[in-house]
Fold this protein.
Amino acid sequence: MNRHVIKSVEPGSIAEEMEIEPGDVLLQINEQDMEDIFDYHYLINDDFITVLIEKQNGEEWELEIEKDYQEDLGIEFEQGLMDDYRSCQNKCMFCFIDQMPPGMRETLYFKDDDTRLSFLQGNYVTLTNLSKKDMERIIRYHLSPINISVHTMNPELRCKMLHNRFAGEALQKIRRFYEHQIEMNAQIVLCKGFNDGEELDRSIKELSQYMPYMESLSVVPVGLTKYRDNLTKLELFGKEDSRKVLAKIHQWQEVFLKEKGTRFVFASDEWYLKAELPIPDADYYEGYGQIENGVGMIRSLIDEVQDAVNERKKEADLQQRSQSGEKHHITIATGVLAAPVIQAATANITAVWQNIHVEVIQIYNDFFGRDITVAGLLTGQDIIHQLEDVSLGEYLLLPDVLLRSGEEVLLDDLTVTDVEKALQTPVHIVKSDGASLVDAVLECIRSNQ
């Protein structure tokens, strides 16, 4: 019998109501053992279940629980997957982890390629280490969606790009999912001279054959750091390269819209910024199905900021103080890629609240190399070094993508407190949505009543 130690219990949950506590052990559901989180999610998907719990004093409690069909019990396990994480067996030519410098915390070098994380957290996986047993469990439990890092539908090229002789035959698992109506999303990391051009055409065409269960495909450009010694030589996509990629994707979108009623394949926002082309309108993104993959994130932010500005304008007190004589100055620091977008978004705020001056400063990534332009890979030391002689105003805003999930630690292990002390300025961490950005900027008015 497998033993799964409970780490925490959500307040107000079924588990709390049943007096399940951290440190208790989940033994069985419906008299069945559980190997991992796949089994757990399958077994709790019923409106009446029997749960066997071992209390910390050794007593065993058999609990009969009546609940909604897919309602969770509200427990988190010490091992998030109720099993060990499975590491990646590939050595992809574009892998970011292989491009990191030595001396960083150990967890940053762990490569996951675990399909259970795809189901639970939306991670993209290559399917190369998906066992036959897990394949059958996914099909039997009908777990979805599964997010797949495809990169190319050419089996030989995929073996080369992933440096794994089994990578090509792993593509057959996509067909198996399709045959059993498992929902999927796909991703292609585009590498110049390898899987672009005609190879990209092939991949888009072959993946589209798995619609509607293959729901979407995103194409993102490869990211290259300065730490690429002894790795495959890769080139960045320039402005004209990016325009060619976008033209190809737009051509396919026209075909799919006409034949299927959906664009299916989408380019990440970075392509539009590299190509110096306008970001499409919200309708183009068809509900933002791949926003976590950088597809439509900018449009969503711009529209959310405008909506929040319009809503906040209705607050009479804020509107009155927007005309007051007191001036406010704050600074926003972000990556090179996002800086122009944040500048445009905050201009919509300061057009209404004219007594606020917002300075947006782009931080160059000297730690990984200046070709890395996304905010999520900035380090505390780069922020400090580039802002230490700048007048930052009342406080500094930083995006939450800089931080390790649930903590206030940046990639280089500096904390938000370290940044505050070094810059002698209060730091406010801002969530990624537009409303949070507007409220963070307006906080200087609210806090000075």
Remarks:
- The CA atoms of residues 247 and 253 lie 10 Å apart.
- The chain has 15 helices and 14 strands.
- The longest strand covers residues 214-221.
